[in-house]
Amino acid sequence: MSKILIVYGSSTGNTESIAHKLEQQLAAAGHEVKVLNAADASAEHLADGYDAVLFGASAWGVDDLELQDDFAPLFEEFDVMDLKGRKLAAFASGDRDYEHFCGAVDVIEARSKELGAEIMTDGLRLEGDGGSAPDEIESFVQAVLKKL
């Protein structure tokens, strides 16, 4: 059994919904899962004690990508989370009409790699709350489970 931390930033509830869907499936597979809203998280040593961390956030912006308001300050402190050697995956909710559809996945993965994290699988990118994409969520969870 692995200990998994899921940290999300959500303005509309969509990313939060995805986080809880991931939690349910990972817990059903026998893992200990903690879900944490980025608004309630402190960056320092956040990943300590966890075998894997899943980060989720929405993003927007026309020219420059802007991370979700609660997640952005946490993201700026990724360097104090102890991500080196940690298994990590990213997920996002988005709207395909925007230029940076689920662009949070790209920036989370890039920064985490810089800090020495191991990206377990390609990021999960979903329209809305993921309610219409149970197969995509299941595939993402299975890819994560294979790397634990």
Q: How much of the residues is beta strand, in percent?
A: 25-35%
Q: Give the overall form.
A: globular
The counted number of beta strands is 8
Mean pLDDT: 93
**Helices and strands: which structural class?**
alpha/beta
- Spans of at least 5 consecutive residues whose pLDDT stays below 50 are none
Order of SSEs, N→C? EHEEEEHEHEEH
- Helices, by number, come to 4
State the helicity in percent bands: 25-40%
Sheet with most strands: 6 strands, parallel
Whole-Å distance between the termini? 9 Å
**What is the CA-atom radius of gyration, in angstroms?**
14 Å
Structure description:
The chain is α/β, with parallel strands linked by helices and 148 residues long. 31% of the residues lie in helices and 25% in strands. The chain contains four helices and eight strands; from the N terminus they run E-H-E-E-E-E-H-E-H-E-E-H. The strands form two sheets. Strands 1, 2, 3, 6, 7 and 8 form a six-stranded parallel β-sheet that branches. The protein is globular.
Provide a short characterization of the protein structure.
By secondary structure, this protein is α/β, with parallel strands linked by helices. The protein is built from four helices and eight strands; from the N terminus they run E-H-E-E-E-E-H-E-H-E-E-H. The longest helix has 15 residues, at 14-28.
